[in-house]
Amino acid sequence: MDTTAEHRAPARLRATPSWLITQTATHASRLASEAFDTVGARRYHYALLAALEEFGPASQAELGRRCAIDRSYVVEAVNGLAENGMAVRTPDPADGRRNIITITEAGERELRKISERLAEAQDKLLAPLSPAEREQLAQLMARVLDHQTRG
Fold this sequence. Notes:
With 151 residues, the chain is mainly α. The chain has one domain: Arc Repressor Mutant, subunit A (Orthogonal Bundle). It contains eight helices and three strands. The chain has a three-stranded antiparallel β-sheet. Helix 3 crosses helix 7, helix 4 crosses helix 5 and helix 4 packs across helix 7. The longest helix has 22 residues. The protein is elongated and about 60 Å long.
């Protein structure tokens, strides 16, 4: 008796990209959460640090837009980063009502540490794929996401 067949979803589902994406996302989320937990980080912290490193200092509103994070969560996450010395807030010289957030050296070190753990999680998730297939999958998924999020 083929025990693997007993645990497989129906072929109709396995041929549906939206179903496959959802099922894979569940595993991806679990692996990423485990990676973040190993270094005491959170997804929002990683996203904000990555945006600050790549794009430079930004307002909280801009960070929220770039990372697709609700404004209230951005405030909470930036508070945590600032409290731990990973980012600093300074008044925006162009608009005193706004703060500009900047990554610190400690934030850059933390980002590297989180990135290493996250890379390990990606390796676990994508283990059956070659490096070229991984790159192709990322490109295709980015293209679908870009199409869905165009305003």
